[in-house]
């Protein structure tokens, strides 16, 4: 697994459900989330992507990386 963006790590640490779900993902799935956040062009976009991933992890809906 690649180094996690600090903002994502902090938000996971504050959200038990998202952290638990993230922990169940494969290394490849985790890397895809991390890459998605890191590929953001601006800080605002990275924050939006981080929030999007936290919400997706929380609600348990099928995520785009499970295709």
Description:
It is a single chain. The chain has 67 residues and is an all-alpha fold. The chain has one domain (6-58). It has helices spanning 6-13, 16-24, 27-38, 43-59. Helix 1 (6-13) runs parallel beside helix 4, helix 2 crosses helix 4 and helix 3 runs antiparallel to helix 4. The mean pLDDT is 90.
- Low-confidence runs of at least 5 consecutive residues: none
List the secondary-structure elements in sequence, H or E: HHHH
Strand content: under 5%
Query: Which geometry do the CA atoms define?
Result: globular
Helix count from the secondary structure assignment? 4
Number of strands: 0
Helix content: 55-70%
Mean pLDDT, as a whole number?
Answer: 90
Features:
single chain, 67 residues, mainly alpha, 0% strand, globular
Summarize the structure.
Helix content is 69%, strand content 0%. With 67 residues, it is mainly α.
Topology (elements, then pairings):
Elements: H1 6-13, H2 16-24, H3 27-38, H4 43-59
Helix pairs in contact: 1-4, 2-4, 3-4
């Amino acid at each position: 697994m690649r180094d996690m963006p600090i903002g994502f790590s902090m938000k996971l640490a504050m959200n038990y459900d998202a952290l638990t779900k993230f922990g169940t993902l494969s290394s490849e799935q985790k890397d895809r989330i991390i890459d998605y956040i890191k590929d953001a062009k601006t800080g605002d976009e990275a924050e939006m992507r981080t929030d999007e991933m936290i919400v997706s992890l929380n609600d348990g809906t099928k995520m785009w990386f499970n295709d």
